[in-house]
Each structure stands twice: as C-alpha cells, then as structure tokens.
Design goal:
The chain has about 350 residues and is an all-alpha fold. The chain has 14 helices and no strands.
Length: about 350
Amino acid sequence: MSDFDVRDKYDSLEQPWWANDFLILVFTMVNIGIIIVDLELELFENNFSLWWKLAVLDLILVGFFFADLIEDYNRCNDKSWWWKTHGWEFLGIPPMFLAGLPFLSGVISLKFLRLIRAFAGILRLIGATQRANVVPVGKQVQHLFMIVFSLIVSGAFFVYIFEENYYQLYCMGVNPPGDCARVIRDFPSALWWALVTTTTVGYGDLSPVTGPGKLVAASLMLVGIGLVGSLAATFSQLFYSNNQIIFDPDAQNTDTNPLILLERLASLHDGKAISDDDFEAAMSLIRARMIAELRMLRIENDSLTTLPIPLQVSAKMVFMDKMKKIDSEIQAISKMFEEE
C-alpha cells in the first residue's frame, strides 16, 4: 500500500501529545526492562512485593498501549483495514498478572506475547515516518535512532531467552559442552552481542548456539545493515545540511540572493536609476563572489576523503547539489553579460 493510500485511511495523521514517538519508545523500553527483571530474579517466587509493584507498573503501561490503539482506531476511517493491519497488537495486551498465575507461570509463550508490544512500538515509529508528508532530516535521525535502539534491545532480549535456557540446561552440569564459553548467559552479555551484531562488527566472543538464537542473529544482521547504514548517512546529511543556508540560494534571505539582486539591479538599470558602468560592475562583483564560493565548495568536497565511507557518500551528495546550483547561477549571470 502506498503512502497516499495509508494517509487516506485516516481523518488526521496528527497524534495527541501523549502518544508521541518518544513516549512510545520510553514505555516500550520500560516494558522490556520489567520482563527482563522478572526473568532474571524470578520475582514471583523470590520477591513477591517487588513483583507486585512491577505488575502494577506493567498494568499502567498496558493501559497506555491500549489507549494508543483505541486512539489510532478512532482516527481511522476504514475499520476493517485497521483490524487487518493493527488487530494483532492486542495480543501484547495481556499484562504481567497472567504470568504470575500459578497455573500459567510456566507458560513461556506468555513472555513472547508480551514482547509483541515492543515490536508494535518499533512498527509504530516506522509507520510514523512513512505516513508523514515531509519528514525533516532531524526527525529522520530521531526516528532511525529510536528504531535501531529498540531493535538492539529487543534482539538482545529474544536471544537472551533462548540462550539462557540453553545455558541453564547444558552448561551448569558436571561435564558442560565445549561451546559453553561463548554462550550468552545474562542480559548484559546479550545486549553487548546485539550491539556488535546489529552494527555488523561481530567480534565473535559471544555467539548464539541454539537454532532460534541463530535466527535472531540472522535477522539482526540483515536488518542492521540497512538501518545502521541509513542512520549514519542521514546523520551526516543533517550535519552538512546545517551549512546549506550559506550556499543555498533558496534558503538565503532574498536581500542576498544573487539572482534576485541581479533582477533588482536590472530593473533599476532599465529605469535609468543606475548607469551602465555601475550595473556591469555590480554584475562582475556578484559573479566573482559566486565563483569564489564555488571554489571553496570544491576544496571542502576534496577534503571529505578523511571521513568514513558512509559519511563521504552523503556529504558529497550535499556538496554536489550546492555546486550545481551555484554553477547554474554563474551560467545565468554570464548569459546576462552576453545579452548586455
């Protein structure tokens, strides 16, 4: 479905202040943190008081995600389409209380159901970017950073569940297998592994040994290549676009835009307000200034070779656009000289 089709499904794409991307990210991370603490410390059996407090907090988060879904549903015009594309998110609503029930505490599938909320938050961030008509570069960086961060934490959590169970079953005995030295046994190790895997560094000090864990690793590597590369390129675009106002005629004040100045000078010249010599001198001065700016841009463009490759590509694209604009303006001034 195209972006236009998605936008057409809603009365308005503007979300309320409490359903913004930052809160979705924060509450998603808190939700994952609650699950991790509960799994690490087995709070229901060992510290029921703390478990109860976290369960109440988890219930509040459930209320937030539920309200976010209802608000999105109310803004949607096509209810049947909404249920097809968003209905699965309700699977992540069952709170921590269900996992605490004696006859359900051993059901590991509940842990994965609660993770659906984490991935729903990631998809919501992606959807917010896709549904926007014009996304500023700064907003793109913010969204990509949130998505990469959420991906790393969620991937670490998934692989931790699979690998920690393997470690408990096979590596705590008398004769553990030889691969136990690289098994991911706690969440900090899983977080480190997810970071180096998503960024495709892959030190190899830790690696998954279970089938599901390897599937998570493959997913992180495939998705990480695109997301981390996009984040680096977009960030460099933001860095270099901050200087665009210096060279971009469209972003400059109309009083300093060379083409607008030339049009005003030509109007004054046609009205005999300035002499031929003054008009030609002004044109020469503006042309000389633009040639100097073009030379400076070329020098800066040549110095980009010291940057990492992803940053070079994005920065060179920005500089090439600037140089093309200035070069076209110089050609326009030269044409005016010929006409005179």
